[in-house]
Amino acid sequence: MSEVTIRMRPNGPLVVEGPVKVLDQNGNPFPLNPDKPLVALCRCGGSQNRPFCDGSHKTNGFVCERLAPTT
C-alpha cells in the first residue's frame, strides 16, 4: 500500500497526498478526481466547498503556522 502524507500549509489547508478516501458522517465517499495526486482539506472553516479548501483562508484572516516538535 502506498504511503499517505498530510502536510499543513502555513495559514492554509491540510494537503493530503496519496491514495485516500474522504467520507461524510454517514460513510459515503465524496467524489475525488483520480487524476489529482492530492486533496486539500479546509482548516479555516470558511470554505463553501467543505470539507475541501476553496481558498477562503486567503481572505478570512485565518492564521495557523503550527510546527511539529523538533525534539
Describe the structure.
By secondary structure, this protein is mostly beta strands. The protein has one domain: Ribosomal Protein L9, domain 1. Helices cover 0% and strands 17% of the residues. The chain is built from no helices and three strands. A three-stranded antiparallel sheet has the order 1-2-3, with no helix packed on it. A hairpin with a 5-residue loop joins strand 1 and strand 2. It is globular and about 30 Å long. The protein starts with a strand and ends in a 30-residue tail after the last strand. The mean pLDDT is 95.
Short characterization:
The chain has 71 residues and is mostly beta strands. It has strands spanning 5-8, 14-17, 38-41.
Keywords:
mainly beta; three-stranded antiparallel β-sheet; 71 residues; Ribosomal Protein L9, domain 1; single chain
What top-tier CATH class fits best? Answer: Alpha Beta
Structural class, judged by helices and strands?
mainly beta
H-E order: EEE
Biggest sheet descriptor: 3 strands, antiparallel
Query: What is the tally of beta strands?
Result: 3
How many domains make up the 3D coordinates? 1
Radius of gyration: 13 Å
Oligomer: single chain
Query: Could you name the CATH topology?
Result: Ribosomal Protein L9, domain 1
Biggest sheet, spatial arrangement of strands: 1-2-3
Low-confidence stretches: none
Query: Which overall shape is indicated by the principal axes computed on the Cα atoms?
Result: globular
Distance between the termini: 29 Å
The proportion of residues in beta strands is 15-25%
